[in-house]
What we know:
Number of helices: 13
CATH architecture of the largest domain: Orthogonal Bundle
Radius of gyration: 23 Å
Strand order of the largest sheet: 1-2-5
Structural class: mainly alpha
Oligomer: single chain
CATH class of the largest domain: Mainly Alpha
Largest sheet: 3 strands, antiparallel
Amino acid sequence: MNKNQTLPIYFKQWMEMYKLGAVTDVTYHKYVVTQKKLKELVPNLRLGSITRIKYQELLNEYACTHERQTVLDFHHQVKSALLDAVEEGVIQKDPTRRIVIKGTKTQNHKPKFLNEKELEALLQELDLNSSVNWDYMILLIAKTGLRFAEALGLTPNDFSFRKQEISISKTWDYKSPIGKFAPTKNSSSVRKVRIDWQLAMQFNQLLQGLPKSEPFFVQRKRVYNATVNDRLAKLCADANIPVISVHGLRHTHASLLLYAGVSVASVAKRLGHSNMTTTQTTYLHVIRELENKDNDKVMQFLSTL
């Protein structure tokens, strides 16, 4: 590492040193995309020449064609690498300090989560027959908040119906052509998730006679995220509710728990977040709404004193 090294080359070496093998393949691919974008935008920008103004110019150019959240993700990755360069003394001052994050206007995306009534309407549409289908996965994620790959990686051995809990210790790499078990997103994602008695009874009956160590949702076939999302979209349309994605079911689960008064710490642990900051950032809108309600309660209480 030296000040004459270009940012794209430095970032490539940095991610190979610190990220390759330490994060999931999906996450590492995001770093690869970032490196390619750096090579496209600032192919000749050298570490010793990076100032706060030059870094802001880089972000501004990236923001011309990307939404604000995407720009923020890009910034976080590049910033992590540059801070290491600052620590090594290659860059004298942190060029990422007091940066302004811009971006294009947010497009119309699918809603991130459903309210309680909408979720109840969705669950009423599920076809929970005697064999494994995608409706069972939709039910499971809605009631547990599992990630899509975590749900795919489940085997009958992962269920303890006596304790009413599921052990999450692996995922299913559905993006691989052959499909295979893969590690969880992070160490915090290895966890036990409690389930209600009704869900326990449904899956206890569903998994009877299935191979104990085989992923029952996959059954060794190629799985596509779009297949489940298409099924979920149809169910949402039939229930006359907003169409959400499978990942939106995870957001729905977390949001409803927060509205029900479950602590942020407990929700973070249930979701497998590496820290509460992730949970607080993702569900900031819910937390702020709850804080406003809490403030009303505080004022009502103080007025009685």
